[in-house]
Design goal:
heterodimer, A: mainly beta, 6-stranded mixed beta sheet, 0% helix, B: mainly beta, 7-stranded mixed beta sheet
């Protein structure tokens, strides 16, 4: 079974500082990994995805994530935080369901990012 | 309209009421999903439909009844809910097997009183 662990339910950074949100996964097969962002009173928006191509994945809004198989990690980074980055971020791993008809996403518990002026 | 649209955005219902949540996708996707998002809990997958056939039911109580009349529309019928069912209900859709990720709607905030 696949699972995702997000380290730190709340991360606080200053505007302009590095953003690092941690995600570790467990998967019995090569994983497909995703980061989603959720702004208040909104649904989830796809930031980026890893699907076994390049290990460094670039997404929207200046975010990127690096797949490290040896560490079973897929941490999300952004060099310089902006006030508009304040939101909740979810890491997810994709696995084929038992019937083989769909890949279903299993989400971590989320990390709330606060950006201080 | 584009993307995934959910209505209503907010719903307050009594425990004896019957209501329905609606989801519509304008992306030509073949799969649709219902997720429940409660405070301090991971997103919970409830139901999966692929080409309007249910392919997954994650042991959801029968007071939640999904309906998928076609690949573009998904409903969640609610009856005799409990206060612990209060949550944000998210609908999503995907193309093919869903490897490219899902597109989510903005959700329905449900409060059971």
């Amino acid at each position: 079974a696949q699972s995702v662990t997000q380290l730190g339910s709340h991360v606080s950074v200053s505007e302009g500082a590095l953003v690092l949100l941690r995600c570790n996964y467990s998967s019995s097969v090569p994983p497909y990994l995703f980061w989603y962002v959720q702004y208040p009173n909104q649904g989830l928006q796809l930031l980026l995805k890893y699907t076994s191509a390049a290990t460094l994945v670039k997404g929207i809004n200046g975010f990127e994530a690096e797949f490290k198989k040896s560490e079973t990690s897929f941490h999300l980074t952004k060099p310089s935080a902006h006030m508009s980055d304040a939101a909740e971020y979810f890491c997810a791993v994709s696995a084929l369901n038992s019937g083989g008809s769909n890949y279903k996403l299993t989400f971590g518990k989320g990390t709330l990012l606060t950006v201080n002026p | 309209e584009t993307g995934v649209t959910q209505t209503p955005r907010h719903l307050v219902m009594g425990m004896t009421n019957k209501k329905s949540l609606k989801c519509e996708q304008h992306l030509g996707h073949n799969a649709m999903y219902w997720y429940k998002q409660s405070a301090k809990k991971p997103l919970e997958l409830m139901f999966v439909y692929n080409f309007k056939e249910q392919t997954e039911n994650n042991s959801v109580p029968s007071r939640f009844s999904p309906e998928c009349p076609n690949s573009s529309h998904l409903f969640l019928h609610l009856h005799t809910l409990q206060p612990e069912d209060s949550a944000l209900y998210l609908c999503a859709s995907s193309q093919g097997l869903g490897l490219g990720g899902y597109t989510f709607g903005s959700g329905t905030r449900l409060t059971v009183v």
